[in-house]
Design brief:
The protein is mostly helical. It has 3 domains: 159 residues, Rossmann fold (3-Layer(aba) Sandwich), CATH 3.40.50.300; 64 residues, 2-Layer Sandwich (Alpha-Beta Plaits); 171 residues, no CATH class. It is built from 16 helices and 10 strands. A hairpin with a 2-residue loop joins strand 1 and strand 2. Helix 2 packs antiparallel against helix 11 and helix 3 crosses helix 4. The longest helix is centred in the last third of the chain and has 32 residues. The chain starts with 13 loop residues before the first strand and ends with a helix.
């Protein structure tokens, strides 16, 4: 919701002083690292993926290569994302979030699925980003990770912020009892008996040597125990402070509220923010980025492309010989096509491709993006939604045009489709109007998908 992917049902929130309603202004100032590592085009290289998202952010492709070097993926820049390890894909996600140099980063479970070494390296990278001046909003269930990385910590209970502050503030506000572990070795029997008589029992700490005095909770008890332990037998006095996990358990189980969030929202900016430098300068650039992406993906399926050409050639051959058989019989309905069944079928195949693309192309493209996991990444860019929809289906229209030209070209080459006899202006008008009508259904379906997606 804070990253504008989901519409709020009620309430208000401000990102860098900007209300959530101003989505494009927010998207130009934030970066998102999701837990879903599928948010890339796996048949493209890491560099190709970043170049696509760089175009949507309005930054140069050179920036993409620079970031790959910064996150340690320079040597794998031209390697397919499908060949990346989980840790490499996480680093690629961070590189994508940094393309437009946003001041605020949202990280959702960044170390999920990583081995200890990769998680350690990623935490070091996150700390470097924080030290560089960026604000990082980290969402995680790994409390030890939050304890190491976060300067301020917030705890949610049933959707409500019940604790917020630094770790020391949370400890203080809970009035947690201070305890000490006193580690000894070779404690004399007389000293042990004296301490036992005072404390009641000598309790060994978990995972500690059996002679460790445990659970001394007052300064008076601490002074008494230290006074009766010979210096040569004293190993260490370790103050015990509650961990974030201890605080979390108490807040969740007992329902204690610690530093609750203020009900007063932050004061919004009285003047509009400056125009984000990372905003896409022209929708045309976004269309070209989508077109280039789809061309690269299509080119990666070399065999599939050749099989499509073979299928088209086979269809032309089948209908040609079928037309030869049909032409032996006279059909009045074919008189408009010179009585040629082959010409009738070719024109039908060519035009039906446009109608099919117009009717289902938009929905298929959006659904494909959703299944790949890339839809959220595209929607967090400042590109307008209508540009995303049109850009997603542009390649399908161009590919359909290629099919049409092949069919008509084959018919003309065989002398069965007479292109010079076609009323081209009328044909184009009918084609455009038909595409507009059919596309309206496709756009409506895509709108339903987006409405459900955003809540």
């Amino acid at each position: 919701m804070l990253t504008t992917l989901v519409e709020p049902t009620r309430g208000e929130a401000y990102i860098l002083g900007i209300p959530l309603a101003r989505e494009r202004d927010i998207r130009a100032r934030i970066g998102l690292v999701t837990a879903d590592e599928r948010s890339f085009y796996w048949r493209l290289s890491g560099l190709q993926n970043l170049e696509f998202f760089a175009a949507l952010q309005g930054v140069s492709s050179q920036r993409a290569m620079e970031l790959l070097e910064e996150v340690g993926l320079g040597g794998a820049a031209r390697q397919r994302v499908s060949e990346y390890s989980t840790g490499m894909r996480k680093r690629l996600t961070i590189a994508r979030a940094l393309l437009h140099d946003p001041p605020l980063l949202f990280l959702d479970e960044p170390t999920t699925g990583l081995d200890p070494q990769a998680a350690l390296a990623l935490r070091a990278l996150i700390l470097e980003l924080a030290e560089s001046g960026k604000t990082i909003f980290l969402s995680t269930h790994v409390l030890s990770e939050a304890e190491k990385l976060c300067q301020r910590i917030g705890l949610l209970r049933r959707g409500r912020l019940v604790a917020c502050g630094t770790l020391s503030e949370l400890r203080t506000s809970l009035a947690w009892e201070q305890r000490f572990h006193i580690e000894v070795s070779g404690l004399p029997a007389e000293a042990k008996q004296t301490i036992q008589a005072h404390l009641g029992t000598l309790q060994p700490a978990p995972d500690a040597p059996p002679e460790t005095v445990f659970s001394v909770s007052t300064q008076a008890d601490l002074a008494f125990v230290l006074r009766h332990i010979p210096p040569e037998n004293l190993r260490a006095v370790v103050p015990q402070r509650p961990s974030l996990e201890d605080i979390f358990v108490r807040v969740m189980e007992k329902g204690e509220w610690v530093l609750p969030a203020s009900p007063t929202p932050p004061t919004p900016q009285t003047t509009p923010p400056e125009k984000p430098v990372s905003a896409v300068s022209s929708p045309r650039l976004a269309w070209l980025a989508f077109l280039r992406r789809d061309w690269q993906i299509e080119r990666s399926y070399r065999l599939a492309f050749l099989l499509q050409l073979a299928r088209m050639a086979f269809s032309v051959g089948v209908f040609y010989f079928l037309g030869e058989l049909v032409n032996l019989m006279q059909f009045e309905s074919l008189q408009a096509y010179g009585g040629d069944y082959f010409a009738f079928v070719l024109v039908g195949l060519a035009m039906s491709g446009y109608f099919g693309t117009a009717l289902t192309g938009v929905t298929k493209s959006i659904r494909r993006e959703q299944m790949l996991g890339t839809l959220e990444a595209v929607l967090t860019t400042p590109v307008r939604l209508e540009s995303v929809i049109f850009g997603s289906v542009l390649w399908d229209y161009l590919f359909t045009t290629f099919h049409l030209l092949l069919y008509l070209g084959a018919g003309a080459a065989l002398g069965r489709v007479h292109l010079q006899e076609i009323n081209w202006p009328a044909a184009l008008v009918v084609l455009v109007l038909s595409i507009v009508v059919y596309s309206s259904f496709g756009v409506l379906s895509a709108s339903f998908i987006m409405a459900f997606k955003r809540g």
